[in-house]
Amino acid sequence: MKLAGKVALITGASMGMGKGHAETFIAEGATVYLADINDEKGLATATELGDKAHFVHLDVTNEEDWQNAMDTIESKDGVLDILVNNAGISVFLPLSAMTKDQYMKSIEINQLSVFLGMKYALPLLEKSKAASIINISSIEGFHGSVGGYAYVSSKFAVRGLTRSAALELAGKNIRVNSVHPGAVETPMVLEATGAQKEAIEQFKTTIPMKRMAKPAEVSKLVLFLASDDSSYSTGAEFIVDGGNLA
Ligand code: NAD
Predict the structure, then answer these.
(1) For 7, how many CA atoms within 13 A lie in the half-sphere containing its CB?
(2) Domain range 7-184+214-240, CATH class
């Protein structure tokens, strides 16, 4: 058990990769707070994952929600060992079509959320003997994409947030790393429609391994970073993309 006795919070955990990470963490002995804006799905997922899973309502852009989630964890467990900033949305539109509101919504959910998560979790992470923050970026944190103005810029920003926090928190025994998946079989990708679906189909043909990842293939990397196995890794970028960036 790599996470025996550890307490984790994962945002966007009601489905997709966040749910996969929660399943993996629980199997390795952790107590997991599944945080999501979707209460119905989040509660159903927590019930499915059993006694070690707890749902907390959390809109990652909302400071009050972050504080409430931390108050809940403090009253039940008194400490937080692992924070996974995973929640995200993907909106791809040409310059002429994307509005300021659409742009800012993606920036708030994908980027501001990472800053708020690290800021509000810090007091409880400081109580851990060895804490780990994992910020989920994308391979689109390394390259441009047609229509990816908001998504790509937010995912580049996650790298900067991660490195800055890693420098500030290294002395407090809190490690901070980013994870960069390629295409993964989650609702974000499988339920895409229109131009986005077309772009995904085209993208799949360019993956050297000729297939998308299963969420569990990303969870194993996130588990490594969450556990003490990665005790000397901080401020670093971990790619899981079937060879795409190569
Ligand atoms: P998903 O759409 O399947 O799930 C996202 C989850 O985030 C959902 O449960 C949703 O309810 C939640 N969420 C959305 N807005 C929220 C908010 N404001 N507050 C709290 N929760 C919110 O997505 P996924 O594919 O599992 O993606 C997870 C992360 O991985 C995202 O950051 C995404 O950008 C990144 N990523 C995904 C892929 C991919 O191919 N699926 C590739 C690279 C990176």
Answers:
(1) 19
(2) alpha beta
